[in-house]
Prior knowledge:
The structure holds 2 protein chains of 2 kinds. Chain A is an alpha+beta fold. Chain A has a domain at about 55-155: 3-layer Sandwich (Rieske Iron-sulfur Protein). Helices cover about 15% and strands about 25% of the residues of chain A. Chain A contains 1 helix and 9 strands, in the order αβββββββββ. Chain A has one helix at about 15-45, and strands at about 55-60, 80-85, 85-90, 105, 110, 115-120, 125, 135-140, 145-155. The longest helix of chain A is centred in the N-terminal third of the chain and has 27 residues, at about 15-45. Chain A is elongated and about 100 Å long. The mean pLDDT of chain A is about 85. Chain B is mostly helical. Chain B folds into 3 domains: about 35-125 and about 230-280, no CATH class; about 135-165; about 180-225 and about 280-380, no CATH class. Chain B is built from 17 helices and 2 strands. In chain B, strands 1-2 form a two-stranded antiparallel ribbon. In chain B, a hairpin with a 4-residue loop joins β1 and β2 (about 380). In chain B, α10 (about 185-195) packs across α11 (about 200-220), α10 (about 185-195) packs across α12 and α11 packs antiparallel against α17 (about 340-365). Chain B is globular, with a radius of gyration of 24 Å. The interface between A and B is medium-sized, with 27 and 33 residues. FE2/S2 (inorganic) cluster binds near residues 97 and 99 of chain A.
Amino acid sequence: MNDAPQSPPSRLDPEAIPRRDFLGRSALWSTAATLAFAAIGMARLPRAAVVSSPSRKFRVRIPETLPDGEPFLPSGRSVALFRDSQGVWAVSLVCTHLGCIVKAQQRGFECPCHGSRFTSSGVVEKGPAPAPLVWHKVTFEGDECIVDEDARVPAGTKVRA
Amino acid sequence: MNFALATLLSGGGGAVNDGPLAAGIKNFANWLTEPTRYSVSSILAIAAVFYFRKFFSKVWVITVFFALATGLFVFAFQDPNFNAIITKPDNVPIIILFATVIFFSWLSLRRAVINDERTKRGEPTLEGELSKQKVFTWPDLVYIELICLVLFTAALLVWSIMITAPIEEPAATARTPNPSKAPWYFLGLQELLVYFDPWIAGVLLPSFIIVGLCAIPYLDTNPKGNGYYTFDERPFAVVFFWVGFVLFWVSFVILGTFLRGPNWSFFGPFEFWDLHKLEPMVNVDLSTYFWVELLGKPRPDEPLVREAPGIIALLGYFLVLPPLVGKTLMKKMVAEMGMVRFNVFMHLFLWFVLIPIKMGLRWTVNLKYFIGMPEFFFNV
Ligand code: FES
């Protein structure tokens, strides 16, 4: 093997077309197939995929023994009910920052997600929350309250039986 | 875990039957991990590490450091409060992260110090010397990769069997776990959400981080430090990396994992996670500071007028600082990078610096927002 071996074709030499062609075509077709699948998927989007949830309006009886300014937390609802001499009111527990459910503390509420703190009437004291907690509409029916989680009332609205 | 549960039930903290020394160490650790002290002391620590880099890059120094750290860890492990946090299955990787980040940062520092000395003597760098030798991909490289693959898979299998993933309480719309923590790799973002409006902390800043990282090869055209470790040739770049990644990002993760407790309050590592810990402070907007505290009148109603101090401050920060710094402190950089590169870099850099500024102001003077315009969903 004395004579110099023929140098193999360099990567820079023009390449035969067919292989490129194959790669290009398969890329094209797989893109087309992906898009088609995605389109089918998207076509289904307008149909609402909702699980029906319980009514946002609920009935609750506030215990007689509830002291002034202490929150009453109906289970399974993100609402705190309060009662004092001027009446009853309901403060939403949904944090106005990103929607975590705030925790009732000795005084006011604290958010477990980014540490916003609210007074018991919902005013922001600390943390990133931009707005006070929402007050929900409360109506009386006999000695039971009906709280509507979809209806908001101006803060400070207290109702009497 | 049972131990931790027992103390939780008895309601006791950790320091009940500690001797004075142990109690002293724990109290000191709790004191030091208050966020402002933690940040200031870690910045000082990084400065010291770089200033005395010859000393810190010695092998015995890191050995002693890790020995001490292990000793401290074993000691801390006895504490029920610390133990309860550290043994949570999802926190185990953070301890590994802690050790590996420190070790590899140290390794890079060591090689940088050695390289700088070699360049001073006119010798090629360690990596430059290495790259003269060639090896085969197969089998030299692929074998190593195969061995790593097998070992890591085995380790992961054992890990996943020994420490089972935690399953929390059933999801319910009316209940949020307290504290509610993102997965560890998102804790940095969650921490940002405490200080900025959601669209800034959740959209703008992450985009800047990603775009900024992608932009590094276009912004940084300095060939020095390519393919080898160095400090003397690139002090600014190296320090920026350490502060940005090691100090901030990794600290955010560690802070979010170990120091954030119920209601997203800060807790020292040996502090009992009291659900009712109250931080008696009220956050105040810059506009309140300006109008009410400084000028002594009520805040104007018109949002733009009300927030003028914050708007002016931030506009000044972003528009005046870059040319100012470019004409004075970073003249050399402008000459090397050109105007466009420098300005892009400067703006990314200023956004980065804004984060610790904002965090520091929140921790020290309870600043809520520079500009607080909930009317327009614009809170910075
Ligand atoms: S969701 Fe409540 S503070 Fe962020």
